[in-house]
Design goal:
By secondary structure, this protein is of the alpha/beta class. The protein has a single domain, classed as Rossmann fold (3-Layer(aba) Sandwich), CATH 3.40.50.300. The chain has five helices and seven strands. The longest helix has 18 residues. It is globular. The relative contact order is 0.22.
């Protein structure tokens, strides 16, 4: 297959979930390979970028970390609009945070097209003795509401064992595959840019 047209891809990934589930820690772990135990709550949203090559395609992920506080909920569409993927994060020690995912799922279904890739992530697996949500419960919900093909992960932003890298790699490969097999008339609808070299991740913020 001739995939020369798909050598560059830019994709927007939005991270959604309740306050305190560890969205920022998850993103920082992936981008910087570090964990900040006393990180402050995100105000509005911030984004970080990550460049990687998957299946001979140079990819630039723009990862938007959104605030979980209810007062910012009305602004959420500003941040997930135009996304190709959404990471829905809950805390395995908080049944409430898992239940609140449903409102995000329903909102995305109402406002985004069916091409959006959704991944459900249970964070804080290092606190498994305090868990209130089992992996089987999460998988049952995701299969019923989003379909059996939807990815479900349990990770620890604190004690990462490679699963966070794996989930982003799998997500990126899905984004690349989707572009490769897209009908030629629709390819230009996928945002793309020329990437000339790998650089260190940069962080920008808004709504300070």
């Amino acid at each position: 297959m001739n995939t020369s047209w798909a050598t560059n891809l830019e994709a927007k990934v939005v991270v959604l979930g309740s306050q305190g589930v560890g969205k920022t820690s998850l993103v920082v772990r992936y981008i910087n390979k570090t964990f900040a135990p006393n990180s402050t709550s995100t105000i509005g949203a911030s984004f970080m970028t990550k460049k990687l090559t998957v299946d001979n395609c140079k990819v630039r992920l723009q990862i938007w970390d959104t605030a979980g506080q209810e007062r910012f909920r009305a602004m959420s569409q500003l941040y997930y609009r135009g996304s190709q993927a959404a990471l829905l994060v809950y805390d395995i020690t908080s049944k409430e945070s898992f239940q609140e995912l449903h409102s995000w799922v329903e909102e995305l279904k109402r406002n985004m097209n069916e091409e959006l890739i959704m991944v459900v992530i249970g964070n804080k697996s290092d606190l498994a003795p305090r868990r209130e949500v089992t992996l089987d419960q999460a998988r049952e919900y995701v299969t019923r509401v989003l379909g059996p093909e939807t990815l479900v992960y349990e990770v620890s932003a604190k004690d990462d064992d490679g699963k966070i890298d794996d989930l982003f790699l799998t997500l990126t490969r899905a984004l690349v595959d989707r572009k490769q097999y897209m009908p030629s008339r629709d390819r230009n609808r996928v945002p793309s840019m020329q990437i000339t070299e790998d650089t260190t991740a940069q962080k920008s913020s808004c709504c300070s």
